[in-house]
Amino acid sequence: MARTVGDKLVVNLARKPGEEQIIDLMQIFNLNPNKNIVVAGTVGPDGAPNTAPISLIYARDEKTLLAALLRTTTTTANLRHNGRISLEIIGSDDLVLGIQGTMRLIREPMKCSEAMAIWEMTVEKVKQDTSPAQRVVQGPASVPRSDKAAAFEKAGFEELEAAAKG
Asked: Could you tell me if 119 and 102 are in contact, meaning their C-beta atoms sit under 8 angstroms apart?
């Protein structure tokens, strides 16, 4: 059941006044490099919806995410069209949050790969999307397919972090 919980990456999920249940999405993204798989939702010029998993994400501050995306995907084409995006993060302990905002291209190509670009997302709304009937106990998990993939992920995350720090 969706409810808006803020417009920043640090939110209070408590439902009662005076209580706190702080979730810091900045820490979730930045302290767990490439371990959070989010589903990115975009809309194409013809109105067709598109979803795709992304994982190279770094939080610059409470209102800004940086994401490394392949330059030739439908997601990227849709962002070039209108910049609107919704990210859905699903994790353990019933962490189900939607982050909505606008993306803009800030680097193309990335230094670590000609196939990638860095996009900057301005966070406009964070919503809690937990189900009243189901409790999420585990989010999606992944491991690199090879040592080369692990090296790519490391280089990509380091480049995002460097871009965030200026």
From this structure: no
